[in-house]
Amino acid sequence: MKFIGLAAAAACLVGAPIASSAFAQQLAPSPTLDAVKARGHIECGVHLGLPGFSFANDKGEWTGLDVDYCKSLAAAVLGDATKVKYTPTSVQQRWAVLQSGQVDLLARNTTITFSRNATLGVDFQGINFYEGQTFVVRTKAKVAAVKDLADATICVAAGSTEEKTAADWFRERNLKVTIINFQKNDDAISAYDQGRCDAYTAGIGALAGQRIKFKDPAEHQILTEIISNDPQGPVTRWGDERWQLVVRWVLNAQIAAEALGVTSKNVGEMKAKSQSAEVRRLLGVDGKFGDMMGISNDWAYNIVKQVGNYGESYERTVGMGSALKLKRGANELWTKGGLLYTPPFQ
Amino acid sequence: MKTAPALPGWIAMLRQRLFATPMDAAVTLVCLYVVWRISVPLVDWLLLDANWQGRSRDDCKSSGACWVFIRARFGQFMYGMYPGPERWRVDLLGILIVATGLLLSWRGLPQRRAAVIASVIVLPPLGVWLLYGGGGLSLVETREWGGLMLTLFLAVYAGLIAVPLGILLALGRCSRLPLIRFASVVFIEFWRGVPIITVIFLASLLLPLIMPTGFNVDRLARAVIGLAFVIAAYMAEAVRGGLQALPEGQTEAAQALGLGYWRIQRLIVLPQALRIALPAMTNEFISLFKSTTLVLIVSIFDLLGIAQAALADPAWVGMNMEAYVFAGAIYWFACFALSQWSRLRERQLQAAHGR
Fold first, then answer.
1. pLDDT tens, position by position, for chain A (346 residues)?
2. Are A213 and B318 inside 8 Å of each other by CB?
C-alpha cells in the first residue's frame, strides 16, 4: 500500500498547474495533461520490442500498433503526432515506471486483469488489441476453427500456460488431441515447422511474429478464433480522471472513425461536407467535445489525419499491409463480427 | 644396427606427442574428426555460405548467416538511437580517448605523470559534455544512447568511480581507526552481498519512487553508480589482497623516516600493492564489462539490448543467431583486448621493478 501511496503522491506533484484555456475553471484539474502541454511531448511507455506492436525500425523510429496509439494521443493533445518520447519498459519495471510518473501512460501489450486493476494502482482505459491464445496450422490442412483440430498433434512448451489452456479446452469439449511437450518454446516451434505436429499454440500476437521465421510463412495460417482472453490496452495511474478521459476517448475516436468511415484520406472532405451528426461531433464541427476535455476541438481530426483510424493503423502495423499478415479476427468492429466497440460520440 | 631414418622435427614431434601409442592415435583421430565435424558447418555458416550484400531479408538467399542484418543495423548496434547527425561526437570522443591513451603510454613523454593526472581530470567531464551536449552542442538525452557506445560508457564511467573508491575502501578496511574500518567493512560486505541485477533494479525503480519529484537523477547515471558501488566492493577486496602481501616492515620503516600516512600509501604501499593486485583488478573489470548487459532489465539498450530489440523488427525477426554471434564477438574482443593490456602492463611493471 505504501508503494501506491508514494506513487499517488508523486502523481499529484507532477508539473505545476497552469491555466491553459478559458474552460480551465469548469474542468477538473489534470496535472498530467498540464504537464504534457507544458513539456510539449507525451511520455509513452512502450514494449522493449514486440514485432508489429512496438519496435524501432532500421532508422531508429518506433513503429507498431501500440506506438500508433501513442502517436494518436499526441495528435489529439498536442496537435502533432510526432511529439512523443518513448520509454521502452520491460515486464519487470513497467508498473513502477508508470507509478513513479516517469511515463504518462503505458501502451505496451499488457493484459487487463482484475487483480492488476484492483491492487496495482493502475487503470485500464479500453482495449486496443484482443490478444488470446490460438493456433498456427498449415494452410493446406483445411482447418478453419479450433474444433477442426480434433485428432491433431499439437506442439507446446512443457509446463507453459498455453499447454494447460489448450489441454483444458479440448478436454472440456471431449475432443481428442495429442499434445507433444518440448523443453523450450523454440524447440516446439521448430518441431512444428519441421512437420512433427499439425499445430503450434501461443498468443495470437506472438504467433504472428513467429510465423515470419518459418521456412515458408505463406504455407501457414493463424486461426482467428481465440481460446483464452487477454485483452490489452492503454494503462494510466489512479487519479487524474480528466487525463484518463482523454486516454480513453482517443482510443474510442480511433475506433469510431473506422466505424463511421472516416479515413486519413477522406477526413478533410468529411469534416467539410459530412451531414452525419456523429461525424460532425467527432471531427469537431459541432459540439466542442475537445473543450470538454481541455484539448483542441479538432483533436479527433488530427488523430485520423496524422495517424489514421484504427483499421488503417491495424493493417499497417500487424495486418495484411505488414509483415505479420494478421487477420482482423476479434479485433474487427462489432458491426463486422468482431469485438471492437466504442460508445457513441454524443 | 639399423637406425630409423631421421624425420623432420615436426613430424617427429607429432609422432611422439599425438601418435605415440595406438590408443593415442585413436584419441587424436577422434578429436580431429569431432573438430572437423564442428568447424566445417560453422565456417560454412559464418563465412562461406553467408550473405553479405543487400538491404533486406529477401537478399539473404543462401543458407548461411545473414550479415545483411548486421550491416543494416550497424549504426544502431554502435550508437543506439543516438541521432545520426550528432554521431560524430561519439566518434570524436572515441578518437580522443584512444589518442590520449597512446600518447600517455609513450614513455618519452615529458611531464608524463602530470599529463596522466590532467587527462584523468579533464577527459571524463569532457566525455559527458560531448555525449550529452549543452553549452553549444544540442542535447542528446541518455535514453537515446545505446549500443556499444553505451556499453563502453557504462564500463568506463563505472570503472572510473569504482577504482579509486575500491582503493580507498581497501585502505579503510586495513586502517587502524575502528570507525573507518567498520564503515569500509559494512560497505564492502553490503555491496558484495547484493546481486548486481538487484542493485540495478533498485537504483532504477525504487529511487524515483522514494525521491521527491523534480529531483530526478538520470536513469543511466543511477545505473552507473549502482554498478560502480558493486564493483568498488570487489575491487577493494582485490586491492586488499595486494596490501596484505606487503611486509609490515615497509610501513614501519617509512614511519621511522617520518613519512605521514598518505605519503606512505602513495609512495610505498600502493605502487607495490596495485602491481600485485593488477591481475585481480583486471579480472573484476572484465566481469564488470560483461555485467553491464544486466541494465537490459531496466530497458537501457546496451549492445546486447539493442541486438535483442532489433530482433523485434518484423523485417528481421528470426535473426537471433546473427545478433548474438555479433554481440558476443564484440564482447569477446573487448575482454580479450583488456586482458592483453593487463598482461602487458604486468610485464612492464615487473621489468621496471626488476623482479
1. 444 444 444 444 444 344 444 444 578 899 999 999 999 999 999 999 999 999 999 999 999 999 999 999 999 999 999 999 999 998 888 998 898 888 999 999 899 999 999 999 999 999 999 999 999 999 998 898 999 999 999 999 888 888 989 999 999 999 999 999 998 888 888 899 999 999 999 999 889 988 988 888 889 999 989 999 999 999 999 999 999 999 999 999 999 999 999 999 999 999 999 999 999 999 999 999 999 999 999 999 999 999 999 999 999 999 999 999 999 999 999 999 999 999 999 9
2. yes
C-alpha cell at A320: 495484411
Q: Does B177 touch chain A (CB under 8 A)?
A: no
How many domains does chain A contain in total?
2
| Cross-chain Cβ contact A323/B309 below 8 Å | no
**DSSP element (H, E) containing A199:** strand A199-203
What is the topology classification, in CATH, of domain B66-82+140-352? MetI-like fold (1.10.3720)
Here the cell at position A18 is 497552469
Round to whole Å and give the CA distance between A134 and B50.
Answer: 35
Of the partner residues B73, B210, B314, the one whose CB lies closest to the CB of residue A51: B314
Q: Are B335 and B290 a contacting pair, CB within 8 Å? A: yes
A323 touches chain B (CB under 8 A): yes
Of B72, B81, B299, the CB nearest to A93: B299
Interface membership of B295 toward A (CB under 8 Å)? no
What count of Cα atoms within 13 Å lies in the side-chain half-sphere of residue B146? 26
What CATH number is given to the structural domain containing A148?
A: 3.40.190.10
Residue B82 CA, chain-centre distance (Å), reads 22
